[in-house]
Design goal:
Blueprint: E1 10-17, H1 20-31, E2 34-38, E3 41-49, E4 52-59, E5 65-71, H2 75-84, E6 88-95, E7 101-106, E8 112-117, E9 133-140, H3 143-154, E10 157-163, E11 169-175, E12 178-185, E13 195-201, H4 205-214, E14 218-225, E15 231-236, E16 242-247, H5 284-331, H6 333-354
Helix pairs in contact: 1-4, 5-6
């Protein structure tokens, strides 16, 4: 039967920054968090998602960073286990006005984390919602030793691993059948020491990238697809703290291209398929061209017919002219006809006189 206690869950997230008000404005623009004062101490400003408070900010000197707190049902026993397994304590168990307790620790490789205890039952665990931290990643110097350490302290177990080639293994860990994050050995070129990185679930990783850049954040990795179809991007906020965003494969629309046009290098961006020519007026265009052609042909035919008709007329005229000439020669034409009629009249007169 699964253990539904708070042990091993990431329950709180605290930002150490030189500018708390600026940081709240930045994360509000990027992931939509609101600012909410803590009822026990209004000077402590909390980050609140739609589901409620999930973290807070502390104005502090030193390197800006996020500190992630893991739940426990016995904080004293947890701190003792950390010490016994080579970890260290930077802040001993401290009581809070709310009735809870916390401590700040580090694992044997030097990655800092916090532990938190509260006497109230936290209830059944649910899947992270948008705006909440949905993944936690440890970049360390020895992931195998880290798995052993956290398994002993929080009951985590290795759930899967992925081969990243030259970067080595990426190990997935979790508890109660729930994947909580990953671990890997940080490459030599990666700045800083071993550290935890929290991912906030967002609807659209590309949109989050644009928002972060517009709010003076620096994109350091991504957007990139990870095994399982999820998408991530990693940033440094304007004050130096690193954080990341996470879009679940389930949040992608069916048929939505996984590539991130805004971040993919031009040389690696998939070439767009050539668009099919739109029908537009392509069908009508040939008709318009065909019509003038028909008219030209008709004109040619008409011209030929006219020429033939003209030739026939000319031939007819030519035939009439010789006939008229011949008639003139025989009868002299109209004048000859008049003479002939006059001769007939004279002959008839003579005949009458003879009678």
């Amino acid at each position: 039967m699964a253990d539904n206690t708070v042990r091993g869950r990431f329950v709180w997230h605290e930002l150490m920054t030189p500018d708390t008000s600026g940081a709240h404005a930045f994360y509000s623009k990027v992931v939509g968090w609101k600012t909410q004062p803590w009822e026990h101490d209004p000077s402590y400003q909390m980050f609140a998602a739609g589901s409620g408070p999930l973290g807070g900010s502390v104005q502090a000197a030193g390197a800006p960073h996020w500190l992630h707190y893991i739940g426990t049902t016995d904080i004293d026993a947890t701190v003792a286990a950390v010490k016994n397994r080579g970890g260290s304590v930077s802040k001993e168990v401290t009581s809070m006005p709310s009735g809870g307790k916390y401590a700040v620790l580090a694992d044997p490789q030097g990655a800092a984390f916090g532990v938190y205890y509260h006497p109230m039952d936290t209830g059944k665990e649910s899947s992270p919602k948008r705006g909440e931290f949905s993944w936690h990643e440890l970049a360390t110097s020895d992931w195998q030793a880290a798995v052993d350490f956290y398994s002993a302290v929080f009951g985590w177990n290795k759930m899967a691993e992925h081969d990243m080639g030259a970067m080595g293994k990426y190990v997935l860990f979790g508890s109660n059948g729930v994947q909580r994050g990953g671990m890997f050995n940080k490459p030599a070129e990666m700045p800083g020491g071993p550290a935890w990185l929290g991912y906030v679930r967002v609807k659209d990783v590309n949109d989050a990238v644009k928002r972060a850049k517009n709010a003076r954040g620096t994109l350091v990795n991504g957007p990139m697809e990870v095994p399982g179809g999820d998408w991530i991007a990693q940033f440094v906020d304007p004050y130096g703290a690193m954080f990341a965003v996470h879009t679940l494969a389930a949040d992608l629309k069916p048929g939505q291209p996984a590539a991130a046009p805004a971040a993919a290098p031009a040389a690696e961006a998939p070439a767009a398929a050539p668009a099919k020519p739109a029908p537009k007026k392509a069908a009508a265009a040939p008709k318009k061209k065909a019509a003038p052609a028909k008219k030209k042909a008709a004109k040619k035919v008409a011209k030929k017919a006219a020429k033939k008709a003209a030739k026939k007329k000319a031939a007819a005229k030519g035939a009439k002219r010789p006939a008229r000439k011949a008639a003139k020669k025989k009868g002299g034409g109209r004048k000859g006809a008049k003479k002939r009629s006059g001769g007939k009249k004279k002959a008839s007169r003579k005949a009458r006189k003879g009678k």
